[in-house]
Write a structure and sequence with these properties.
Strand content of chain B: under 5%
Number of helices of chain B: 15
CATH architecture of chain A: Orthogonal Bundle
Oligomer: heterodimer
Helix content of chain A: over 70%
Number of strands of chain A: 0
Number of helices of chain A: 11
Order of helices and strands of chain B: HHHHHHHEHHHHEHHHH
CATH class of chain A: Mainly Alpha
Structural class of chain B: mainly alpha
Shape of chain A: globular
Largest sheet of chain B: 2 strands, antiparallel
Number of domains of chain B: 1
Strand order of the largest sheet of chain B: 1-2
Chain lengths: 292, 342
Amino acid sequence: MELFTNQVLAGIATGAIYACMALAVVMIYQAIDHLNFAQGEMAMFSTFIAYQLMQWGLSFWPAFILTLVISFIGGIVLERVLFKPLTNAPVLVHVAGFIALFAILNSVAGLTWDFTIKQFPSPFGSSGFLGSQLISTHQAGMVGVTLVLLALLYIFFRFTRVGLAMRAAASLPESARLVGINTSWMIALGWGMASAIGAIAGMLIAPVVFLEPNMMGGILLYGFAAAVLGGLTSPLGAVVGGFLVGIFENLVGTYIPGIGNELKLPIALALIIVVLVIKPSGLFGRKIVQRV
Amino acid sequence: MSTVQDSVSQAPAVTAPSKKSMTISTTATLVVFAALLITPLFVKNFIIFQMTMVLIYAIAILALNLLTGGSGQFSLGQSAFYAVGAYTAGVLMENFGVNYALTLPAAGIVCFIFGFLFGFPALRLSGVYLALATFALAVAMPQILKLNVLEHWTGGVQGLVITKPDAPFGLKMSQDMWLYYFTLFVSTVIYVLAVNLLRSRSGRAMMAIRDNQIAAAAMGVDLPLYKTLAFGVSAAFTGIAGALGAIVVQFVAPDSFTIQLAIAIFVGMVVGGVGWLPGSLVGSAFIVFVPNVAESISKGLSGAVFGVFLFAVIFLLPHGARQVARMIEMLFTGKARSGSKV
């Protein structure tokens, strides 16, 4: 039983990472109705910016805030320059654009900061949380940040003018335009927020997996799995999905023989396919019915 | 969903060209083919090797082109099928001593089954979701290949080393040159097969699905069958390319088949022009030679170059090499073909 509790706790801790990433994925899916394959690389790039700022002598929190601002603006600029002209383009073109962004960011990060593995400091320290051996303060901090982020997003989408406008623009663009919402800028805002959330995820993950240009490959896959499991239309679902995927991954790794660390990515793959086949709208998502 | 179809239906994959342009494209085909036949006689072995790789990737890109341009489905997971083909060839040759030429059909069959089975969940998915599922497949593939269970055959992380075949019938030819002509033969056969497939009843059914799924179903096209069939055929061709690749490179290892390979194949298709089969050769020349040039300037630059080219193609030449080919053709004929958009 103790092993079980340990594994669940460890699962929650890793799940926080996936939850963060899934939140970013859902944000952009809400705004533009596409999955951004470059999301992980955007987060990785933001983390490198934070790293660079700290190299220049900033302490953690100022660097953190500044990185968020830069990522937010960066996300908006990317949308305005590269993806706004493609608004009405077919899916294939969007996927090609995301792939292009993926390749460029990965390569530029490698060229600028090279491909060696770097340490990234944790703001929460790495001692045991409340004297326990199971979960470190950094992991507890990660869970905390994810929950705070979810609460903030909930308040933003529920009670603020801009948040409501964004939801309107995403669900019924034409009607939203008729009531005077600038839908095009709402999309840009969605990109900015997704980029900033991705930056938070990146900076929280980096102390665990270490900083390098390819650090996000597997994590993005888990983020996708979490988002798909929770339902691509629901931020709450994304977070719950993230924790579930984390716990599931750990339990499967512990209790099913023959599955060690090596099988973890295939598990994410299997999970994505099973969910998409059995319940494409996920646990919390709305079912989208298309008129013929 | 309608947007998916728009992308590929702007120009049909198989057109009925007018007589004059027919002679031009026939001439162009013959010139390219002659160049492919003669060039290896005059260049060094390393360049022959690179040309072989161009042909191999051209098969893989052609396979993706059949899937996307033919039936309108996406795949970012072609590297997985390529890997399965390569491993099939490697395992058969090294563990069972099968002749290298016989591993190609074997790889094709194994990959056809694999692709056909993967096509089943893919049936439920469209557009972005399909891209996502195949993306996941490509990311997970290297880890699946490293599994302990399979290590006995696959050699685990170390991979397999494959012996290079000699030229048969006592031909006085270097191994590289023989493999080049062998690959050229295989890719020509596959090209002809692909063109004829698109012109056949099945091909028309696939294109009908691409253009309008609902209308196609109403016409009596069996959607699940033709969609999975397209996946299977595409996987089979990719697998053959993978098998050839394994024989030519003489080595297979899990980390040769990462998502980067899937991206390269995708880039090749977009650069060559979606739905235009001859573009596959242009696309594969692009993905073989451009990274070489880029890496010689700085390590890791090729990704950025790929990305920038992709954006350039998206914004400036949405039809890729096909558009360039049309422009050249117009220069020769002096006027635009009636009815052609580009």
